[in-house]
Amino acid sequence: MSEATARPEGCALVTGSSRGIGAATALALAGDGWHVRVNYRSDRAGAEEVVAKIADAGGTATLWQGDVAAAGDIERLVEPGDDGPVLVLVNNAGVRMDGLSPQLDDEQWQTVIDTNLTATFRATRAALPKMMRARFGRVINLASVAGIRANPGQANYSASKAGVIGFTKTVAAEVARRGVTVNAVAPGLIETAFTEDVLEGDMAKAIPARRVGTPEEVAACIRFLASPEASYVTGTTLTVDGGLSA
Amino acid sequence: MATQVSSENVEKTIYDGLVELGTERDDLSREATLESLDVDSLDLVELAQIVEDEYGVELKGDDVKDVKTVGEVIDLVVAKAG
């Protein structure tokens, strides 16, 4: 194995991994041999199911309760433990609170920014020093097609995800020479509980692929970005949207 | 367990850390400036992590922004630990 593809001991943290893209990502990373910290805020049953699936597949994972929007929680989630330092960080936890911008209240704005953008910053800040020391680290931030193109009704969500993309680029440039990569993945319409209220009617007609995506298709991209083989990919935003933003 | 903080211990930690980051050991002295050693802001972040791992002392960006020499880094760590 070359130096560029070597992988030191450590674990993967996937925030918000009790369901949807986070759950699929936790399973994918465990399949690559990472011990995975399965983080959840309130859906303990869902998180337990993910941990059980990982164990059934021969992997290892532990439950980590914590609200990423709470300042103290995120540092605790990233703290090195018996499973070593967090060397793969997937900032996946996110919320939507939609509404046309003239009607968005401050709480709808701030809650979405706190969870989607500020928590991504805090988790990354906490994880980077250990990654730099290990000369290996993978930060993968969940952005969205809504952070790249207009999506009426999601001004707060779009702003948070555009912020994630800008944050990703700058941090990537800061730490690239320490073997740490920082990338974003921007899903389009993915079939999860997060989007079930918007996946109605003939929405698929607007997507060149003529279908919505699956959590596993997003997880496959995250798995690649987390791999040692992706060592020269940094600062990029990988869209996973069936051509929606093409 | 954190290493006992003494000026000698900290000096050794800082010197070893700087060598690990690419500085020539022969160039190191308390008077050497970080600039002359090509120690940049990212190196300082990593040096802060080395110090935290070794002594449990947390160095923030504001703590090190005015530090110019290796000796000042050593003195800062000793002072923060005291």
Radius of gyration of chain A, in Å, reads 17 Å
The helix-strand sequence of chain A is: EHEHEHEHEHEHE
CATH class of chain B: Mainly Alpha
The CATH topology of chain A corresponds to Rossmann fold
Structural class from helices and strands of chain B? mainly alpha
Strand order of the largest sheet of chain A: 3-2-1-4-5-6-7
Give a brief description.
The complex is a heterodimer of chains A (246) and B (82). Chain A is an alpha/beta fold and 246 residues long.
Compile the SSE list and pairings.
The complex is a heterodimer of chains A (246) and B (82).
Chain A: E1 11-14, H1 20-31, E2 35-40, H2 44-56, E3 61-65, H3 71-78, E4 86-91, H4 106-134, E5 137-142, H5 155-175, E6 180-187, H6 215-226, E7 237-240
Helix pairs in contact in A: 1-2, 1-6, 3-4, 4-5
Chain B: H1 7-20, H2 41-55, H3 61-64, H4 70-81
Helix pairs in contact in B: 1-2, 1-4
Question: Would you kindly provide a written description of the structure presented here, covering whatever features stand out?
Answer:
The complex is a heterodimer of chains A (246) and B (82). With 246 residues, chain A is an alpha/beta fold. Chain A is 39% helix and 16% strand. Chain A has helices spanning 20-31, 44-56, 71-78, 106-134, 155-175, 215-226; strands at residues 11-14, 35-40, 61-65, 86-91, 137-142, 180-187, 237-240. Chain B is 55% helix and 0% strand. In chain B, helix 1 packs across helix 2 (41-55) and helix 1 crosses helix 4 (70-81). Chains A and B meet through helix 4 of A and helix 2 of B.
